[in-house]
Specification:
It holds the Pfam family CLASP_N. The protein has about 200 residues and is mainly α. The protein is globular. It has two domains: about 100 residues, Alpha Horseshoe (Leucine-rich Repeat Variant), CATH 1.25.10; about 100 residues.
């Protein structure tokens, strides 16, 4: 009860008095992220929703917390509880919509895309597709915002993923977005292993 009340207070502060949270944002984010793994599903679900609310209200102020939070939320996407899975995916969606896209993309590629669990890879690929579509091939392949080799290798890996949804719905869609860039074939030859080509 106390933890749920505390999370509710943080949510209210984020909505009504976000400037109060800014000086201690890392501590607040860390405290809420720890509660995501709480054994009580009610507390865990409420913490997941609170993180989504922090992303929605504090937007780019949350950039420095993205790596830590994305890792924990992605872990919860393969939870046995359906509402925990959906809540974690919803909060990741709010993260992608509100923080710096390059920051979100880096976090998703670092922890989700290479995960051994199929559900985690699928969720990461879904949100990665959103960032790819929002940024567009010009920005993505310019090399200024993210490492082009890592991006191309990641997209090629997802386009060959063992899970059908990850492969068809997300991996190949990302590939088709990048293929619209005239220099994509050159980047693919530079960074893609020959067997993938």
């Amino acid at each position: 009860e106390q933890k749920a009340k505390g999370l509710f207070t943080i949510r209210c502060l984020a909505i009504c008095h976000s400037k109060v949270l800014l000086p201690r944002l890392h501590d607040v984010s860390l405290a809420v992220t720890i509660e995501v793994n709480n054994l009580r599903t009610k507390v865990s679900h409420f913490a997941i929703g609170t993180l989504g609310e922090l992303f929605r209200t504090l937007k780019k102020n949350m950039d420095h917390e993205v790596d830590m939070i994305a890792q924990v939320l992605l872990q919860r996407t393969w939870d046995s509880s359906d509402f925990i899975q959906k809540g974690a995916s919803r909060s990741l969606g709010l993260m992608v919509q509100n923080v710096t896209l390059a920051r979100a993309m880096t976090a998703l590629m670092a922890t989700g895309v290479q995960h051994r669990n199929v559900t985690v890879r699928k969720c990461a690929a879904e949100h990665l597709l959103t960032t790819v579509e929002k940024m567009g091939p010009e920005k993505l392949l310019s090399g200024r915002h993210i490492n082009t080799d890592v991006l191309v290798n990641t997209v090629v890996r997802l386009a060959q993923d063992a899970h059908q949804d990850t492969r068809w719905c997300y991996g190949r869609q990302m590939l088709s977005v990048l293929m619209s860039h005239p220099k994509f074939a050159k980047y693919l030859k530079q960074s893609g292993p020959s067997h993938d080509l």
